[in-house]
Write a structure and sequence with these properties.
283 residues; 5-stranded mixed beta sheet; 5 strands; elongated
Length: 283
Amino acid sequence: MANMRAIRTRIKSIENTRQITKSMKVVAATKRRRTQTAVGNLKSFSDKSRFILSHLMGNVSDSDNPFLKARDEVKRRCYVIFVGNRGLCGVYNSALLHYAEEQLAADGGESYAVVCGRWGKESFEAAGINVKRVFDDVSDTPTAQECRALTDYLKELYLSGEADEIVLLYQQFKSVLSQTPGRLTLLPVPPMEEQHGVTGDYIFEPDASSVLNSLVELYISNTVYSVLLEAKTGEHSARMTAMTAATDNTEDLISTLTLELNHARQAAITTEISEIVGGSAMM
């Protein structure tokens, strides 16, 4: 009976865990849909802005915009690492941390990191990564307003000369089951791909240089926000996948324990019958 009681207690505990993992899976799925919708809404606007920016960059050769000018020598590179706000999402955060370690180790010099997300303060310290600042107030479904503080800070780092290049490190969203660590150069603004079929019959008001400067600012903001949304989509997808696997594991374990409980119950019944029969034979 003691063994059966222990099995029932364990089954009850695992059932409670299953309820938690199922709830976390639903929450993660809801947040993933929100961020993925935001990515889709932003993409059309970003693509058109990039299209016009590429045209202007190819036709305005005398621009003095500091974000378009590469430094003669890159001494200090700032890596912006987009991690999750919490764990329980498989290897999402740890894989990105290892990727960041490799990037900083290969770079050497005076490189440092700016972290966006609440996860892994101790992990970054243990990895020996020099973290200059942490933005830990970004929600799981971030808005453009929440991203503005990070964008303004990165622009100030570049303008002040504290960073000669700014690189974004994040989990690139491939599918719900696949996220791959990758990098994207934010500043200086990299050369745009040549747009085919672009004509020069644009009229810019007040002038092309002013429009170019505005579009550069818009490009920087959109790029940071797009990367943040993509990283969040990957985080929620990874957590949803992890919680699905955890829920499946609890169900398998419950089935195994239920079978074990049935065997224990049958053994107890068999023992009781044997004792009754044995007692009757002795009378």
